[in-house]
Design goal:
Helix content of chain A: 55-70%
Mean pLDDT of chain B: 86
CATH class of chain A: Mainly Alpha
Largest sheet of chain A: 2 strands, antiparallel
Oligomer: heterodimer
CATH topology of chain A: Fumarate Reductase Cytochrome B subunit
Structural class of chain A: mainly alpha
Structural class of chain B: alpha/beta
Low-confidence stretches of chain B: 357-363
Bound molecules: protoporphyrin IX containing FE, iron/sulfur cluster
Number of strands of chain B: 7
Radius of gyration of chain B: 28 Å
Radius of gyration of chain A: 21 Å
Number of domains of chain A: 1
Distance between the termini of chain B: 96 Å
Amino acid sequence: MLQNSLAADPNRDLKSIYVYAAPVRIWHWVMTAAMIVLVTTGLLIAYPPPAVGGEASEHFLFGYIRFAHFTAGYVLAISWLVRVYWAIVGNDYTRQLFLVPVWSRAWWSEFGNDLKTYAFLPSAKPLRYAGHNPMAQLAMFFMATLGSFFMIITGFAMYSEGAGRGSWQDKLFGWVIPLFGQSQDVHTWHHLCMWLIVMFTIVHLYMVVRQEITTKESILSTMIGGYRSFKD
Amino acid sequence: METFYEVLRRQGITRRSFVKFCSLTATSLGLGSYFTPQIARALETKPRTPVLWMHGLECTCCSESFIRSAHPLAKDVVLSMLSLDYDDTLMASAGHQAQAILDEITTKYKGNYILAVEGNPPLNEDGMYCITGGKPFVEELKRVAKDAKAIIAWGSCASWGCVQAAKPNPTRAVPINKVITDKPIIKVPGCPPIAEVMTAVVTYMLTFDRLPELDRQGRPKMFYGQRIHDKCYRRPHFDAGQFVESWDDEGARKGYCLYKVGCKGPTTYNACSTVRWNDGVSFPIQSGHGCIGCSEDGFWDKGSFYDRVTGIKQFGIEANADKIGGTVAGVTAAAVAVHAGVTALKRAKVDHGTGIPKDGSAK
Ligand code: HEM
Ligand code: HEM
Ligand code: SF4
Ligand code: SF4
């Protein structure tokens, strides 16, 4: 599927198309929930709440915060594993997050058209997409996919330091720490990349709301029921 | 060729002290009593291995730490009396005499001596920022390293670069593994490293005639396998969420965790929280100050010692992840708001019944 827009395929039924199968929809909402927990607890790890009083043995506050972060981290990692698997067995749209057809001229020309559309230029053609438009696809690839992978890799690298030398986390991800220099650098980059994901989410939510209001294509219901429908 | 034991006896060390030393060494290496006779046997039968200790750009804090080893036998016996053949700051001879020893050992024990390096070579101006014996240190280092059996990098200078390699590093000081690439190097980082760790590493190499097990970054696993944080006695306060917020608060008096005032224990690999310093008396966290991460790569360039979230030098200005990330997210939100505004304006101009813009132009 080199060309994303539906204009290239006039024979298709343009009433509704099944885009997101159940595993993709479940993955999306599980991942969203995990991200909310991860950003909240991640910031609490960086800026812990005011000290609790009493004996240390009476509390495990920071322990629970970190536990929640690590649990959500596992959920995020596993949900992405499922998503990668689904990109192999699922429909064409499932691969959009992982394969950006930068070699395709048609793709680039539609990308240019997207830029014009969002810059409100009158020369933009109103194209329709069942999956993602090239601009969305590129942003998702770099910020959501690679961003999540980066968080998972650096997250598990830091986790391996607590799990200890010889743990599977250490064997799989321990090499990341010398790659960045030292552990403190991994913390810094893990923290910085959180903002990339926050930034993506802001734009993502805006795009969803915008498309919901201004176009005749379904969007929110697509990620709930799976069908992209066109109201004309 | 004399054995270690023969040299010891010649120096007037009793058999009893010798066995004590062996069990002490076994313990500090975490080997257990089973290894005591093995160490003793090795020292009795093996010919001694000479150790050359060279100094590059450094402050001598490693030597200072070393000579304060809690176990005098360890340092005196293993190095001063028995094996340390050359150390320009500790040896009696100087000048040409000292240089002669260096030449003698490197030829007589070719391929059979251990080279310990304190400090590091500066490379700018052909190495002229550090001259020893009339030659740039970097040349001397390469020459002596060529025929060494193994090389020990003492301290953070030799291991990572430390303060003289901190930005902007005017002399271009580099860790020794940048100029010695064909030999095993054991890194014993710290500014300085703990004396007991230093003696234990040398003893291990002399007795077992092999390198201690190293981690990915070339540090002996037995001393650098865990972070300060993993064995810190304030850890229960960390897990409970009890932190010192400022140096004079109630938490500081109660000995709460120093995480929020920048303790680098969670990111620092060293043995301070177990071996401690000065005969096991204390270590920085025990005296109320956070770990500054002195045994980690580039610890001078990681921002303030008192910040939890440290700066990012790559961005040139003084900024941390939140200043950069927060700004980017803020700008994004503002851009989104503007875009939403323009979208709303455009829509207001469109007749919703027909979808045709009110001014008649294309959509
Ligand atoms: C999008 C997902 C994630 C976000 C937004 C996030 C956010 C954060 C933040 C802001 C910090 C504090 C960093 C600092 O300044 O020191 C942190 C620490 C950490 N994160 Fe994540 N994280 C994410 C995913 C993960 C994953 C998948 C794991 C893997 C289990 C993980 C494990 C950790 C660990 C081990 C720490 C260090 C905790 C400590 O030092 O006590 N994170 N995270
Ligand atoms: C409450 C918050 C969220 C809402 C309401 C939401 C909504 C949606 C909707 C409606 C779609 C379908 C887009 C389309 O059909 O073109 C979608 C897709 C997507 N969302 Fe979200 N989203 C949220 C949070 C997130 C977060 C936090 C992330 C990750 C950082 C994320 C990543 C994605 C990705 C990668 C896709 C594409 C899915 C695919 O192609 O398989 N979303 N989202
Ligand atoms: S004082 Fe430092 S090393 Fe000790 S528990 Fe707190 S953060 Fe960890
Ligand atoms: S506590 Fe940290 S800063 Fe202090 S000596 Fe040990 S490793 Fe270095």
